[in-house]
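In response to the reviewer comment on reproducibility (Comment 2.3), we provide here a single inverse folding case reported in full, input and output, so that an independent group could reproduce the run without further information from us. The structure tokens appear first.
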């Protein structure tokens, strides 16, 4: 039996390593690992201007201590809404 490891889909996830508790472990854009901003109504990467999903670089998603990502809460806050997981994807720290 082989485990399902799809290397083609294992794109890294970027997170901000910042001294400020509220900013630390914030998710960054998948494409460039940087912040995003709104251009018209779309959330766009500030570096390549590709449209990104909410939570990437907009300060809304954080990496919790159990390697899940959570929305609308401080990092590691078990009460905040679970958004996803880093399982199978390399984590890259920025900053
Ligand atoms: Zn980008």
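Designed residues, in position order:
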């Amino acid at each position: 039996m082989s485990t399902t490891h799809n290397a083609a889909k294992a794109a890294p996830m970027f997170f901000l390593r910042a001294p400020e508790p509220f900013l630390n472990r914030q998710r960054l854009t998948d494409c460039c690992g940087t912040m995003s901003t709104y251009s018209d109504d779309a959330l766009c990467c500030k570096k390549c201007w590709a449209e990104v999903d909410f939570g990437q670089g907009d300060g809304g998603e954080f990496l919790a201590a159990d390697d899940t990502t959570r929305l609308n809460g401080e990092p590691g806050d078990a009460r905040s809404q679970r958004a996803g997981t880093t399982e199978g994807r390399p984590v890259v720290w920025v900053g």
